[in-house]
Write a structure and sequence with these properties.
By secondary structure, this protein is an alpha+beta fold. It has a domain of 137 residues: Up-down Bundle (Butyryl-CoA Dehydrogenase, subunit A, domain 3). 47% of the residues lie in helices and 14% in strands. The chain has 13 helices and 9 strands. Strands 1, 2, 3, 4, 5, 6 and 7 form a 7-stranded mixed β-sheet that branches. Helix 9 packs antiparallel against helix 10. The protein is globular and about 80 Å long. It starts with 6 loop residues before the first helix and ends with a helix.
Amino acid sequence: MDAAFTAEQDEMRRTLREILGKHCGPDEVKNAVRTDAGHDRELWQQLSRQLGLPGIAIAEEYGGVGCAPSDLALACEETGRVLLPSPLLATAALAAPLVGALGTAAQRSALLPALAAGELTAALAVPGPALATALALTGDNTPGDWAGGGRAGGVQARADAGGWRLYGEVAQVLDGHDAGLLLVAAHTGGFARARTLLFLVRGDAPGLVRARQATLDETRPQGRIELRDVEAELLGEDVHGGADPLTALAATGLLAATVLAAEAVGAAGQALARTVEYVGRREQFGRPVGSFQAVKHRLADLYVQVQAARSAVYYAAWDQEQGALALAQALEALRVTAGEAIQLHGGIGFTWEHDAHLYFKRAAADELLFGPVHRLRAHAAHRAGLFDGPATPGPPTPATPEPSATHAPEPPAPDPSATLRKAAV
């Protein structure tokens, strides 16, 4: 394993940091999230044209850059540093891999070039607050119960004259309010033979009703969608002969976890850097706050935690099987760093309008969507089989004879101290 970055990767990171530094200050971010789209459309097109950002991990035959998923993770560390509001996560880390893994040749040829060019954005719609389970990050997704079982709940699909019709509701869809394409997880096959499949729904399909939801983290906009007998297209081959969508979702979850972890590490590193800069110039008792030993110790602990998370992310970018563990480490580092940033900024840091709260909201919202951390670690341990071995044998326990009519228990031995006490009395 060679942990060094290539010249191309260094140049991509430098160019991306330069562009984002000009267009993604805290004020620009706050203005972008308050638009109808929830992001700066012009900046999204610039990143798509100059860097091919949404197509980094898409094959060249479909108009992408053709890089490895690790390059997408490195790019997302830079977007996380500035908390870039964009459809990158939903489009490049969730939707595009599923289209590539499950789609037919015609579907891949029709959709992937538009996704790679940034002309089409996409979102994954999973019924209920079960995105982490659907991606097999916090639990096993193979039963498909997360999609809403039975005859009601979730999204239902029924065949109709060679096509499909969907009806149901999904309350939390990342970028679902504005995406041009929706990948909807739905039940089909009736009650006894239900199966969860993925369907393609165009953003302008008749019967599709969408609305943007109020969220804790405005840089991750979410939409609520209602499917009222909406025409849909099955993603992939026929119901029985196609690839298993649950397996594809689990593989996509590992990529998404690595990308999310990279974003979290970038955000944590930037929150720490801003805090170090602030305590270096803020004076108290005639000296910088950062010169106090207690503050130095807290900052040193944060630095170690952020660097450990960054190392875990880089390893997961090389081996995506470690994506869930890297995500747990990165989310914890971001949560702790953002909380300490608010405290070390003093009285001004506690004001809701301060920039430090942007990082705190990102930490809290990401853990709600893709965590919590302890469940990420527990499921990763379960997948690795850490707790599946036989119990360690201990020393044998001597058998105790059962009392019976023919074998009465022996009376207890007399206590000499009690006899002495009676004689003294």
